[in-house]
Amino acid sequence: MTEPQPVYLKDYQPPAFRITHTELKFDLAPSNTRVTALLHLERHPDSQPGLPLILDGEKLSLQRIAIDGQELQEGEYRLDAETLTIEDAPDRLRLETEVEIDPAANTALEGLYLSNGMFCTQCEAQGFRRITYYLDRPDVMATFSTTVIGDREQLPVLLSNGNPVERGELPNGKHFATWEDPHPKPSYLFAVVAGSLEKVEDHFTTMSGREVLLQIWVEPENLDKTEHAMRSLKAAMVWDEQTYGREYDLDLFMIVAVNDFNMGAMENKGLNIFNSAAVLTHPQTATDAAYQRVEGVVGHEYFHNWSGNRVTCRDWFQLSLKEGFTVFRDQSFSADMNSAPVKRIEDVSYLRTAQFAEDAGPTAHPVRPDHYIEISNFYTLTIYEKGSEIVRMLRNLLGWDTFRQGSDLYFARFDGQAVTIEDFVGCMAEVSGLDLTQFMLWYSQAGTPEIDAHGEYDYAKAEYHLTLRQRTPATPGQPNKQPLHIPVRIGLVGTKSGEDLALTLNGSQGKQSLSEGGVLHLREAEQTFVLSDVAEAPVPSLLRGFSAPVKLRFPYGREDLSFLLQHDVDGFNRWDAGQRLAMLALDDLIAAHRNGVEKVMDVRLTEAFRGLLTAPEEDQAVLAEMLTLPSEAYIAEQQPVVDVDAIHAARVFVKQSLAVALRDEFLAIYQANQSDAVYAPSAEQIAQRSLKNVALSYLMSIEDERGVELAQQQFEAGHNMTDVRAALTLLVHSSRSDIAEPALRAFGEKWAHDPLVMDQWFSIQVTRPQPDALDRVKYLMAHPAFSLKNPNRVRALIGAFVNQNRINFHRLDGEGYELLADVVIKLNKLNPEIAARIITPLTRWRRFDEQRQALMKAQLERIRAEDLSPNVFEIVEKALAE
Ligand code: B3K
Ligand code: ZN
C-alpha cells in the first residue's frame, strides 16, 4: 500500500477548466442511484493551453460518457480510483457522464447517503466527487440546475439548492422535482434531500422589501421542536442586515434536520442541512445549552451565505477565511442575543481548554495550514476558534466602524469569487491604513503565544512600567517563531480608589492618551510600556476581554486577585481573576495530594466565594460562571505533567470545602432561584437556572440529605430538561445509586423513542466519576440503542467518556485506552472522519506520566498497524512522530 501523500499550499494552480453551468439528474434508489451530469466546460483563461481535463471522482461506477453528444470510446479517457482524465479535450465542451452510486453502503456520511430512510448529502469538503465526476474544488463556481427523481410514496419530498422550477409525475410510481440555483457556487455547497418529511413555514421580509419563504423540514414526530430554530433564523436574518448590511438573496431558505451527521450543520446554498441535535428543541427534551447551541449554529450557517457562499475560499488552505470570520459573526450574534460577558467567558474557556491543547500537541497547525493529507482533519478548533480570535483582534485593532468598512469592501469587491486570506486582511489594511504585515503571522505560525508580564510602580515619578515579553513555543515543523503583533488591552485599577486610572502612554511620540480601549500594541519580543501620571499604586488588569488568544502570566498575589475580583470593571477579567485565584489554591492542593500531605483549603478562596454569594452580581449569569471552578481539562492544561488523579482529588476537595463552609449561602441561592414560570430560553431564565443548578452541584458534592432531597425533587418535578438533566446528572454522579438507578431507569424508559434525549442518557452515565464507569461504557455499547454508525451516539457514549471522564479514561490498567483504540479501529472502516476526531485524547500521550505514556503509545501503535484511512493515518503519524 502506498502511503497517502500531502497536498501543499505552495503548489496551488488555477484550474485548467472552469464550469459555467452544471445540470444534474438524480434517479434515487438506496443501493443504485443513477447520477447524470451535463457539465458546460471551458478552458480557464489563466491556464496553460493544452492541459488535460482531469475530473475528480471516487467510488463511482461510470456507465456512460460523452462529449458534445458523442459517446467516448475506451482509450479516449482514462480512469483511476480518484480521477477521470481526458487528454485532448476541446477548449469548450459539454461533458455528459452517467454514474451509479450506492448511498445505502455509505457509512462515511460524505457524498450522498441515507439517514433513517431519507436521502441527504454532505459535500464539504470533497464529498461531491463521490456523487459525480467533477472539478471538485472551491475555485470552480457554476450555476446548477438539478432534477431529483424518486419514489412518490417513499420520497414525497425532493429538495435541492435554489428555487423550485418544475415538478411532476413519472411512470412506475415515481415523481420528480427540478431546482435552479442562479448563484454560481462551488460543488461543496451542493445539496440534495429526499424523504418523507414535513415542514413548518414562516416568512421574512428583507431590508429591501423582498419576501423570503422560510422552511424547516423534519420527520413528522419532530414538528413540535422547530420553533426555536425558526425564531433564531429570523433573528439571524435581521442581525446580519443590521450589523453587516447583508441581505438574503433567494426567495426560499430551507433547513433540514437529519439524525446521522458528522458535524453540526452545513451551509449548502438555500438548503442548510443540520444535525438534528443542532436544530431540534423542546423544553422537555433540550437543555438551555442545547437551545443556545441551536441559536448559534442556525446563525452560523445562515451567516455563511455571505461569508463563505457569496465570497468563498480559493482553496481549502483558506478554510479559516470563511470559518474564522463566520464563527466571529455567530459569537457576536449570540452575545447580542444573550448575556455578552457570559458568551465571552464560555468562548474563551473553550478556546483555552481545547484549542490551546490542540496548539500544544502533535496536530498543532497554523490557522492557514501549508499542507494536509486529509482536509477533513482540518475542521479544527484552530481553524474555527483561533481563526475567530484573529478576526476579533482585527476588529479590536480597527474599531468596529472601520472593521465594518473593511467587511463591506471585502463583500463588494469579491462577491461571486473564490479568494484568499490576504484578500480579506488586505481590505482591512486598506480601509484602516494600518500595516498588517506582521499581523499576518497569526495565520502562518502555529502554537499559543506566551506573554510574561512584569510591572513596576515608580512612586516618585508616578509612572507604571509594564514589560511584556512574548514567545511562541516550537510546534511540529516550526522550530523558530517570530514575534507577533498582539493587541493587549489593559487597565490600571487604583489600589486606594478601587477605580480605573486614566492611561497615558509615554512613548517615542510623546504622551498619548490610551483612554479609547487601552490597547497596547506589542510587536517586539520584549517591550516596556511606560504609563505616566499614575496617581496611585495600581493593580494591572491585563488582556481585558481576552484581547488576544495568548497565555499571559503575571505574578499576581492572592490579594491582587481578590482585589480584581471585586473591583475590575472588565467583566471578563473579573471572572478570570476568580479563576486565577482558584488555580493558585488548586496548584497547592495538587502538590499536597502528590506528596501525600494533608490538604488544607485556601481561606482566601472561601472568602472570595462568600463575597460573591452574599453580594450577588447584577448579572446572575456571570455569577454562575464565577462560581464554577476551572474544569479538570483546563487545570490539566496548566500542569507540566498531567496528574489526572491529583487534579480530580484537588478539585473535589475545593468543591466540597466550599460547600461545607458556604452551605447556607448555596442553599439560599438555590431557593432564591426556584421558579414556576413557563419555560423560555430567555437570558434571564437561563441565568436563574444555571445559578440554581451550580448551587445544587455544591450541595450535592457533599451529598448531605438536603442536597440529595432537592436533587430528587427537582428531577421528579420535571419542569424542563435543563433542570431534569442537572438533577439526574448529580444523582448519577453521586454515590447514591439507591436513588440514581431508579431515576436513570425511569428516564431511559420515558425517552426511549427520542434519540436526542437518549444521547443525554448515555452521556450522563458514562461521565460518572465512580470506578464502574468503564464497565458501563462496555455494557452500553451493547445496548440495542447504540450504534457506531451514528455520530451523535458515538460522541454521546465514547466521546463523553474519553473527554469528560478523565480519571476513568486514564485508568492505570490502560483499559480506557484500549477501549478507545478498539473503537477507532472499527470506525476507521465505517466513518474515517469521526474515527480521526474521536482519537484525539490518545494523541496527547506526551502530556502524561511515563506509565500512561507507554500505555497510550502502545494503543496508537496498535492502530497504526491497521490498514488505515488517510484520515486516521495522518493523525496517528503525527501523534507518533519523534
Ligand atoms: N462548513 C461545515 C463544515 C462541514 C465539513 C465536514 N467535513 C460546517 C460549518 O462550519 O458550518
Ligand atoms: Zn462554518
Automatic annotation (TrEMBL):
GO BP of this protein: proteolysis
GO molecular-function terms, A-Z: alanyl aminopeptidase activity; metallopeptidase activity; zinc ion binding
Organism: Modicisalibacter muralis
Catalytic class of the enzyme: hydrolase
Signal peptide: none
Residue span, Peptidase M1 membrane alanine aminopeptidase domain: 229-440
Record key words, sorted: Aminopeptidase, Hydrolase, Metal-binding, Metalloprotease, Protease, Zinc
Taxonomic superkingdom: Bacteria
Residue span, Peptidase M1 alanyl aminopeptidase Ig-like fold domain: 447-553
Protein name in UniProt: Aminopeptidase N
